[in-house]
Design a protein that fits this description.
The complex is a heterodimer of chains A (311) and B (424). With 311 residues, chain A is an all-alpha fold. Chain A has one domain. Chain A is globular. Chain B folds into 2 domains: 232 residues, Rossmann fold (3-Layer(aba) Sandwich); 136 residues, abc- transporter (atp binding component) like domain (Coagulation Factor XIII, Chain A, domain 1), CATH 2.70.50. Chain B is 23% helix and 38% strand. Chain B contains 9 helices and 20 strands. Chain B is globular. Classes of the chains: A mainly alpha (311), B alpha/beta (424). At the A-B interface, strand 1, helix 2, helix 6 and helix 12 of A face helix 2, strand 4, helix 3, helix 4 and helix 6 of B. Strand 1 of chain A pairs antiparallel with strand 4 of chain B, so a sheet runs across the interface.
């Protein structure tokens, strides 16, 4: 395998001018087929399906940046903290203990025959992932203003990297969940594979919410202030500390409009009960999330064109 | 290759909307007024650019100059696609990179190496490309010993050099240059300039946005002059820069206590001003310690009992007014000189130019010595000349003090040495 540094073509032009004081980088000579160059057209923002599609395609050209920035989120998050990545697990674990005491011991919430600690943890893990993703992503445009006002890259990468970083934390927490499942000798079935589409729906929803709120946050910092409250209310409107079956039937239709219901309920169902997912709640969650993402992306792109002027 | 255009700016306008905020510190608003204020569409609009068009050919070096607020930074933001135009269209053929303010993509906790990957990918380099150039970037920045240290431990110089080094190793088809060349120590600046020149020699297109006329003239063949968001000149560098300096002469900005527009017009006017060297020849450049004469041709239309001529010399430091001084005919007891009606000449004699190498702008005016009923300033030429002061005899300091000396072997002065003769 050739050494990677030798790949750059050598500069064929003889140097007629004084040599530079130190060795500077070689510059690849202009290719003969100069018209193969990419053409960028910068024009006033316009909104069409084609423009959105182009934006999505452009995003794929930035996958290296996406990778580097996501890795960077994880690297930075735990620098100079003693416990490091353990925090990704400690948060849902401690919440599990608190909620176990409050809801199981004191309030007597029933947990469908599953030990309450496990019942709560299997929901708190995806919930923490969602909540961390959204809470950290909403500040992404504002906190990167020095980049956003100077360099161009698709801005949606910023919130996206926070969502991805949260998913990595979820995977780390998954190890603990697996250990708990093994400890309680709960049999895993093939139904557990449903976790992948379930997490997929959560990813789409988290991204959609992050896109909208990070764009709104640019103009109205109230979003950041209201975030902890919103997440708290949202959690109690989702079957995290109680089972879906505890929700009265007359409220059920309204309740199901929360896409996180399908995510949390099914995450727990396929892993702990080994039963097939509730396809209805999952489909409703997926449909709402997808629709939200489309609207969110359109809104984000609208804000993006002038975000540097507002920041 | 000729005939190819890399950059087409076609009828571009940019409007900014500004929400008026009349908030005073500590003022209290009701919730309703706060909400209404936030939701109200921005009230004031401001056109930073109006119908700007120009093209840049392949391999060309174009300078964009203009006053602060003329639209230079808006052009920079539009070309680098940070913001979008309100009207018009920009077409870019090839990869465009801006040498942005260095280090803005750095994270203090990450090491130099990690930051190279981070900044590099923000600037549009692929991971593989960065890996290929890693060694060269580190070497160019001169930080090899600290490359695995978090950049928060870097000195500001190292931080800067590393940031610039990454940007300098981009291989754009079109390079967008800001004032970044003005940062860093002289040695590193030279290195950067060499890098820019190298890119130019390799046929890369360069757009240099600056108000540093000297650098623009050195680097660019062609210059576009912006004023109040519009292109008012586009042509060979020397000509456009001359136009810009001419404009400065016409401009009537009030930077100092002097009233800008003549308040007593018609009583007397300045016809011409010449900057001359010791031999009486017109010059635009001179050296520290040289003899300089400033000759003002005027015409008095009536008898003026208390005329005062002033010449203001402003040194320009980083594009801003630096130290300045006034030459005046006003006597110590605040009396002017009497002018008879008709043309005349007055000459200021500067025996030794006590200005360190810099760019100086000259303004001159004629006024009454006291506030007369009809007005005060009779004529005023703002920035009528830009003078390049070049190193003469090397004397250190922020300014130059003409001096002579005496030893037991003889007498001398710096001026005589500058003139090339040995002290007697």
């Amino acid at each position: 395998m050739p050494h990677i540094a030798d790949v750059t073509p050598h500069n064929p032009m003889p140097r007629t001018v004084d040599p530079p004081p130190t060795r500077t980088a070689e510059i690849a000579s202009l290719s003969a087929d100069a018209d193969a160059r990419p053409v960028t057209v910068i024009s006033p923002p316009s909104f069409s399906v084609a423009a959105l599609w182009q934006a999505a395609v452009r995003l794929t050209q930035y996958r290296d940046l996406l990778y580097t920035l996501s890795a960077h989120r994880l690297q930075v998050r735990y620098k100079q903290s003693v416990l490091g990545p353990l925090w990704a697990i400690l948060q849902p674990l401690s919440l599990m203990l608190i909620y176990t005491i409050i809801f199981w011991r004191l309030a007597g919430v029933e947990s469908e025959g599953i030990p309450y600690t496990l019942f709560a943890f299997a929901a708190l893990l995806p919930w923490t992932c969602f909540s961390t993703a959204v809470s950290s992503a909403i500040n992404s445009l504002v906190s990167h203003f020095n980049l956003v006002t100077k360099v161009y890259f698709p801005r949606e990468i910023l919130p996206l990297t926070y969502v991805i970083a949260a998913l990595v934390d979820l995977a780390a927490g998954g190890v603990v969940l697996a250990a708990l499942i093994a400890y309680h000798q709960i049999p895993l079935t093939l139904q557990a594979l449903w976790v992948i589409p379930v997490v997929g729906v959560m990813f789409i929803l988290a991204l959609a919410v992050s896109l909208v709120l990070s764009a709104v946050q640019v103009r109205f910092r109230d979003i950041g202030m209201g975030m902890p409250l919103l997440m708290q209310v949202w959690m109690f409107a989702t079957p995290v500390v109680y089972p879906l079956s505890a929700v009265p039937n007359k409220w059920r239709t309204l309740y199901m409009l929360n896409p996180m219901v399908g995510v949390i309920e099914n995450f727990r169902r396929v892993l702990l009960h080994g039963t097939p997912p509730d396809l209805e709640s999952l489909a409703v969650g997926a449909a709402i999330s997808m629709a939200l993402l489309l609207v969110a992306f359109m809104y984000f792109k609208h804000v993006e064109s002038t975000v540097a002027d507002v920041l | 290759m000729s005939g190819m255009t890399d950059l087409v700016v076609d009828g571009v306008s940019k409007r900014y909307r500004v929400t008026q905020s009349r908030d005073r510190v500590g003022s209290i608003h009701t919730l309703r007024s706060r909400v209404r204020r936030a939701l109200r569409p921005p009230s004031e609009e401001f056109w930073a650019l109006r119908n700007v068009s120009f093209e840049v050919g392949r391999g060309e070096t174009l300078g964009i100059i203009g006053d602060n607020g003329a639209g230079k930074s808006t052009i920079l933001k539009l070309l680098s696609n940070v913001t979008t135009p309100t009207k018009g269209q920009i077409t870019i053929r090839g990869r465009l990179s801006a040498l942005i303010e260095v280090g803005s993509g750095f994270h203090p906790e990450l090491t130099g190496r990690e930051n190279i990957f981070l900044s590099g990918s923000l600037l549009g380099m692929g991971r593989r490309e960065i890996a290929t150039k890693l060694e060269r970037i580190i070497e160019f920045a001169g930080v090899s010993d600290f490359i695995d240290t978090p950049v928060k431990r870097y000195s500001s110089g190292m931080y800067l050099r590393l940031g610039f080094s990454i940007a300098a190793h981009l291989e754009p088809d079109i390079l967008l240059l800001d004032e970044v060349l003005a940062v860093g120590d002289a040695e590193f600046q030279a290195k950067c300039l060499e890098r820019v020149n190298e890119l130019h020699r390799h046929g890369r297109t360069i757009v240099f946005i600056s108000h540093d006329l000297l650098s623009v003239e050195r680097l660019c063949r062609r210059v576009v002059l912006l004023s109040h968001g519009q292109v008012i000149a586009d042509g060979p560098a020397r000509e456009v820069i001359a136009t810009y300096q001419e404009m400065g002469r016409m401009r009537t900005t009030t930077e100092e206590a002097v009233t800008a527009a003549p308040a007593a017009p018609g009583e007397a006017e300045i016809k011409d001003i010449q900057v001359l060297d010791g031999h009486g020849d017109r010059v635009t450049a001179m050296r520290t310690g040289d003899a300089v004469k400033i000759r003002i041709h005027y015409k008095a239309n009536t008898r003026i009992p208390d005329a005062v001529f002033d010449v203001y010399v402003y040194s320009i430091v980083h594009g801003q007014h630096g130290p300045w001084c006034q030459l005046t005919t006003l006597t110590p007891d605040h009396e002017g000189i009497a002018l008879e009606a008709g043309p005349g000449v007055i000459e200021f004699d500067i025996s030794e130019l006590a200005i360190q190498p810099s760019e100086c702008r000259l303004s001159a005016g004629i006024r009454h010595s006291h506030h007369a009923p009809g007005g005060y300033t009779m004529d005023w030429w703002q920035d009528f000349a830009t003078l390049q002061v070049q190193p003469g005899r090397e004397v250190r300091g922020t300014f130059y003090l003409p001096h002579s000396w005496t030893t037991d072997r003889g007498v001398g002065s710096v001026a005589t040495i500058v003139a090339g003769s040995s002290p007697r």
